[in-house]
Design brief:
Helix content is about 80%, strand content about 0%. It contains 5 helices and no strands. It has one domain. It is an all-alpha fold.
């Protein structure tokens, strides 16, 4: 695993912890932008918060395992665009 891989994995892990923190703190109930976004997903804002954050985590993991981590041309291109290669 390269330094970039480890950094990206840490970023995804920190986002997961941040999502848990938001859930415990009932962010969807006290922060208007979060309430708006979760309300677009479900009338039950708690469920909407879970869905949005699981989707965000899944996207981060997908990015880590498919386009970012492999030493393919696509992975190198993405890392180049992000200024990390």
């Amino acid at each position: 695993m390269t330094r970039l891989d480890a950094t990206f994995a840490a970023l995804v892990a920190v986002q997961a912890l941040h999502s848990v923190e938001g859930y415990v703190g009932r962010l969807w109930a006290v922060f208007p932008p979060a309430a708006f976004i979760t309300g677009l997903v479900s009338q039950d804002r708690r469920l909407g918060f879970i869905v949005v954050n699981v989707g965000l985590l899944a996207f981060g993991l997908w990015c880590f395992f498919w386009p970012v981590r492999p030493a393919s041309d696509r992975g190198r291109s993405i890392r180049w665009v992000l200024g990390s290669d």
